[in-house]
Amino acid sequence: MAIRKNKKTNKWEFDYKDLRGKRQIKKGFKTKAEAERAYNKMVEDLNKGLNPVNAKMSLKEAGELYLRLHASSNCKPSTYKTYCGYLQNLLVPFFGKLNINEISPILVKEFIKQMQDKGHQNSTINKYVKFISAIYNFMIDSDAATRNPIARIKSLKEVKNDKIRALSTEEVQALLAKTKVVYPDFYPLLFTALFTGMRRGELLALTWDSINWVTGKITIDKNYVNGRLGTPKSSKTRYVDMSSELARVLKEWKLACPHSEINLVFPNTEGKYQSADNMIKRRFIPSLNRAGIDLIRFHDLRHTYASLLLANGAPMKYVQTQLGHASITMTMDLYTHLLPEVNDKCVNLLNNIVNSTITSKEEIKRFGT
């Protein structure tokens, strides 16, 4: 035990390592029992991630604590990596070594303005601010910060993204036809992406036992991102419908795909998880080039799936369920504007009701007695 009596002061004291791993000393206890009680309480608080950290801690140090003690175990690997980038590349250069209790709402607003001036999207800036707020909430719970300067700052208005790129029916046909001939080993993955809307990480983590050939459902409960296996983005399992044509493609692929001890549907040649970057560089981009299609993101295949469903009359609620969106509002915000031709058709829908009513009345007058 690190409890001892200071010979100079004749008082009891103990040392400990704070949440940053730095050695600290608590002094001035009159009795050993008093020092032991304080020490035990200190250990208990440290194990809970609480107290006692230097009240003069900088935002950089606070951010590192948040990442190490919270984000590393409670956030997805991709989110954790993103947060590390926010801290190192944005927050530290702007706020420097300022004490967390010295950062005011005005200074945060200055940070927001600087990000806008540099051309960052409002939606992205809102994510930066949300990260800062998470750091402060964590530090408040740890008794290291007295207030959250973000508390009364409103989120920036986010403009609906009209730049979503979805392939047309003709482009989908051309892409599939060319890929089937040139990259037959990539064709099943591409086909599955286009006709399920699965995310890249969900496709790379998909295993054969997640495909139910009887019900025609694919269970999506895994995600492979940044070399780590985790849960889907929403952290919830969802079930995607599998068309008969997709089932045919996957059954043929099962006979030809590399053997995988971990039962992967789309493994690399060694039967292990594919590298997402390699897949994009060596298969997806070359497939687009061969089909004569301008460069798009792999995620745009998900947008393509949604837009094609809607263009062919699928209810918005069905699209929401298939994509796993938390709310139908999210689905509508993303995809309604992709369907101007559908909106045009809807403009004159009520004319049919009026015309039917007039015709009906004329028939009654003509044949009634």
Report on this model:
The structure is a single chain. The chain has 369 residues and is mainly alpha-helical. It folds into three domains: 3-36, no CATH class; 59-141, DNA polymerase, domain 1 (Orthogonal Bundle), CATH 1.10.150; 169-342, Intergrase catalytic core (hpI Integrase, Chain A, Orthogonal Bundle), CATH 1.10.443. It has helices spanning 32-47, 59-74, 77-95, 105-117, 122-141, 169-182, 187-196, 200-205, 244-256, 276-291, 300-311, 316-323, 328-335, 340-347, 349-367, and strands spanning 3-6, 11-17, 23-29, 211-212, 217-220, 223-225, 228-230, 238-241. It starts with a strand and ends with a helix. The model has no long low-confidence stretch (mean pLDDT 86).
Chart the SSEs and their pairings:
Blueprint: E1 3-6, E2 11-17, E3 23-29, H1 32-47, H2 59-74, H3 77-95, H4 105-117, H5 122-141, H6 169-182, H7 187-196, H8 200-205, E4 211-212, E5 217-220, E6 223-225, E7 228-230, E8 238-241, H9 244-256, H10 276-291, H11 300-311, H12 316-323, H13 328-335, H14 340-347, H15 349-367
Antiparallel strand pairs: 1-2, 2-3, 4-5, 5-8, 6-7
